[in-house]
Amino acid sequence: MTPAIEIQRLGKCYGALVALDNVDLVIQPGEFFALLGPNGAGKTTLISILAGLTRASHGTASVMGYDVLSDYREARKRLGVVPQELVYDPFFTVRETLVIQSGYFGLKQNDVWIDEILHHLDLTEKAHTNVRTLSGGMKRRLLIAQALVHKPPVIILDEPTAGVDVDLRQSLWQFIQQLNLQGHTIVLTTHYLEEAEALCNRVAVLKQGKIIALDSMHNLVHSTRGYTLEFRLSSEELPSGLQAWPGKQEGCLHSLKIKDSSEIETALSILRKSGIQVLDIKLLQPDLESVFMKLMEADSAGGA
Amino acid sequence: MTGFYTLFYKELLRFWKVSLQTILAPILSSLLYLLIFSHVLANRVQVYDGVTYAVFLIPGLVMMTVLQNSFANSSSSLIQSKITGNLVFILLSPLSYLEIFLAYVSASTLRGLIVGSGVYAVALLFYPLPLQSLLWVILFALLGSALLGVLGVIAGIMSDKFDQLAAFQNFIVLPLTFLSGVFYSIHSLPPIWQFLSHLNPFFYMIDGFRYGFFGTSDISPYISMSVVLCCLIVISGWALWMLKSGYKIRS
């Protein structure tokens, strides 16, 4: 099967600054893929190269088998990009914007699909409103609509929910999930790790232009073994049986690292025997955020 | 073709939506030039035999309007799109650099011609203007507006800020236009200024255009046509290279 996105030894330097360092990445059709990393990690550079906004210093990139440079017309027809900045052309209405964007992709009659996107993105009522007067959230949705006018099989969203309120975020994600279910490949960058964790099935973590982790969301999240058991106790001091357990303490709040659920019972029985009252108990599963933080720390330590 | 046509249409729509500023205002200012200069300079400036100064001035003003508006159209559209960031919509599309070039230049040409026709039409109400050869008139109007449309593309791509574009306009386009013989025949100038005028490509556009009306000009319209055509080819090559290489627009 032709990969949706294939990147080989892709690099980009701005003078002495290496924004992307020999990145290899293959994303298969139908994936919901997250590209994560701190600011300046190279996510936007990577997206820009795929979109043809930036030229790579070396290496190749293709969309649905079409090279983004030598076959740029075919590649761009198959790619929809939602840029990070809220950009718009203040001369036009919402509908005009979408008709024009369709035309750029060679589509003369696109009204039915435009109506459908407007409906899904809750912009129908604003169709004849000048873009300038839209709220930030509406402008964001219009950007998504613009990326979809040509029904691209691959959709890249660069921080699509930055600055969007909670309600709208939910409906946006529902719509994007629906697109994914229809077979579109979705690649997104986001600062909201819980969103990435809930939606994406595979993830790449970039740091300083390199991919430092690339795995399925499940594997990555569970790469941190064990759980955290959080107790609020009647005492600030742990019973002697638990003092040797790894963990940390803030007043009466104790967090203990455990390998598996059988240790919960052990911990509880030690507490019971020592007569300390358990006021509250929580079992924290590993999440993407903790894995992400760990990756960032580990890589810094390794690099130092 | 649809891609090219859409960008062309978008560019037309862009200036049409603000036509008060992009069409009517330049027509009015050209007519003010005509009113004031023809009043002040009548009988003071020697032009062609049997041609009054006002009538001599009109083709120059028409052409000046054509050139300035063609330049303004592509340059301001590009710089606005760059600064507001919406150029990205064009850059993300499968439009080729040739389509982008042709769309911007055609729209600029059309704006120049519309505004120029407006000035011409209003001037005709007040002054009897001869027309020796419509073909030369149209040819020079087309070449001139295309040339300035291309120059506008270059200026729009090169400028990062509005004041850089203004510098382009104020230090290149405006002096070259004013010193091109819009307001005078270069035969009335001292030899050194005549020589310098011959180095100004704008002179050939004005002179050739005027030939279409009077059948007389400072130099042969064929020479003027050749010079303007060469300039158009050279700077089109430059603009196309910029668009192809992504200079300043694709990092």
Question: How would you describe this structure to a colleague?
Answer:
Chain A: This is ABC-2 type transport system ATP-binding protein. Chain A: GO terms for molecular function: ATP binding; ATP hydrolysis activity. Chain A: Keywords: ATP-binding, Cell membrane, Membrane, Nodulation, Nucleotide-binding, Transport. The complex is a heterodimer of chains A (304) and B (251). Chain A is of the alpha/beta class and 304 residues long. Chain A has two domains: 5-221, P-loop containing nucleotide triphosphate hydrolases (Rossmann fold); 227-285. In chain A, 36% of the residues lie in helices and 28% in strands. Chain A contains eleven helices and 14 strands. Chain A is elongated. Chain B is mainly α and 251 residues long. Chain B has one domain. The model of chain B has no long low-confidence stretch (mean pLDDT 93). Chain B has helices at 2-16, 19-41, 53-84, 88-91, 97-126, 134-158, 162-178, 191-198, 201-214, 221-245. The chains are: A alpha/beta (304), B mainly alpha (251). Chains A and B meet through helix 2 and helix 3 of A and helix 1 and helix 4 of B.
Question: Class by helix and strand content of chain A?
Answer: alpha/beta
SS summary, helix count of chain B: 10
- Strand fraction of chain A equals 25-35%
**Radius of gyration of chain A, in angstroms, nearest whole number:** 24 Å
Name the descriptors.
heterodimer; A: 304 residues; alpha/beta; Rossmann fold; 2 domains; six-stranded mixed sheet; four-stranded antiparallel sheet; 14 strands; 36% helix; B: 251 residues; mainly alpha; globular; ABC-type transporter activity (chain B); Transport permease protein (chain B); transmembrane (chain B); transport (chain B); ABC2_TM_bact-type (chain B)
Topology diagram in text:
The complex is a heterodimer of chains A (304) and B (251).
Chain A: E1 5-14, E2 17-27, E3 32-36, H1 43-51, E4 58-63, E5 66-67, H2 72-77, E6 79-82, H3 94-104, H4 111-120, H5 136-148, E7 154-158, H6 166-181, E8 185-189, H7 193-199, E9 202-207, E10 210-216, H8 217-221, E11 227-233, H9 240-243, E12 247-250, E13 253-258, H10 262-274, E14 278-284, H11 288-303
Chain B: H1 2-16, H2 19-41, H3 53-84, H4 88-91, H5 97-126, H6 134-158, H7 162-178, H8 191-198, H9 201-214, H10 221-245
Helix pairs in contact in B: 1-5, 2-3, 2-5, 3-5, 3-6, 3-7, 3-9, 5-6, 5-10, 6-9, 6-10, 9-10
